[in-house]
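Lab meeting notes turned into a lecture example. A postdoc, R.K., suggested we walk through two folding results consecutively so the class can see how the record format repeats. The first protein's sequence and structure tokens come next.
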Amino acid sequence: MAKAQDIDVEPSEPYRHAAARVVRVRAGELFDHSEGVLDTRDIERVHDMRVASRRLRAVLEIFAPCFPQSEFKGVLRDVKQLADALGARRDPDVHIDALRAFSRPLLAANKPGVARLVEDLRARQSRGNEVLATELERMRERGLQERLLALADAADPEAQAQ
């Protein structure tokens, strides 16, 4: 799993300045994990992006008072929708992985039943991937990355001018 970047916040640092810095870092982490996220052969990619989306959502909620509410609400909604789509794809990944491990020591006669469950989960994984692909495209079309950076800029306009 990808480790979150440490972000040092000084007690004397203005809240708005910390909000802007933290949101920029967490947004960057989210988009850094987007490459290859639809590849079902590497389930850690979707996991890393999902974790990054949850971290981003948390800091958005923590620093909510720093942001213009009209823009904030739409950005938070979009981050939540992306996290939901990542979850729809991630859940079958976890179950498939667990069933594979479970089936290794089974008698050969029991393996077809597990294989059938995995097949059903692969169908769910595929549907989840379609949902995620649609959400990623919507995220690009709506400029979520740019909107997150604009939100950070709005939180701390003085830092933007420097």
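The second example is placed directly after the first for contrast:
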Amino acid sequence: MKLVITGASGRMGRMLIETALSNPQITLHGAVDSAQSPFIGKDAGDFLGHATGVNIVADFAAAIKGADCVIDFTRPEATLDYLPLCAQAGVNLVIGTTGFDAAGKALIAKTAEQTGIVFSPNMGIGVNATFKILELAAKILNQGYDIEIIETHHRNKVDAPSGTALKMGEVVAEVLGRDLKQCAVYGREGITGIRDEKTIGFSTIRGGDVIGDHTVLFAGAGERIEITHKSSSRQTYAAGAMRAALFLNGRKQAGLFDMQDVLGLNTI
């Protein structure tokens, strides 16, 4: 499979490149970064001391010619620019970018009518298993428990709450028959009054170099159940993204999928 990686000189981009180069099923076909990057024109494997023969470029359209798939962990505005180009070229796309608004998500879904897309707020295999565990927990703890979601990320993360935290909220809300847009509470301050038992609370922490910690708290009378996932390396996201890319390559058809589809968890 011929793969193009965007944000190639960033921390996640470099982890994706390193992971792709170690996978015998994948050939690094292209590497893209912003035109302002000082790494434009340099070999994508320079940071590893490994010559790949693929230089980092700013021209996305040129980079995807002849490619099978793109993995994109950048910013919403960049991802949305890439969508029509992937559709026109018939190139699959794995989107790990977070922070899309409703219009952006709608455009992703529309583009998936023309090419294969895996769109997930978290590509980690463990965290997607956690989503499934939360589904079961919400079914059991569906009465008498207040639900709070606490997430911690590094100081450079620009969106809050994280896409993973929101997905956790969506999973729980759907099981409980609630609309997250109506029941979510994002932070509290001042005289807030007694907690509404139907709400799902979110707390966001930013600091240091934390890769990503998420806890869903079910607080009942006399007990608390905490379901926690902690990421200690971006490698788990990269490994999941490679599985997603290979999943799309094997299907050879358009459609919108998530990591639950990739891992076969939607049938459990």
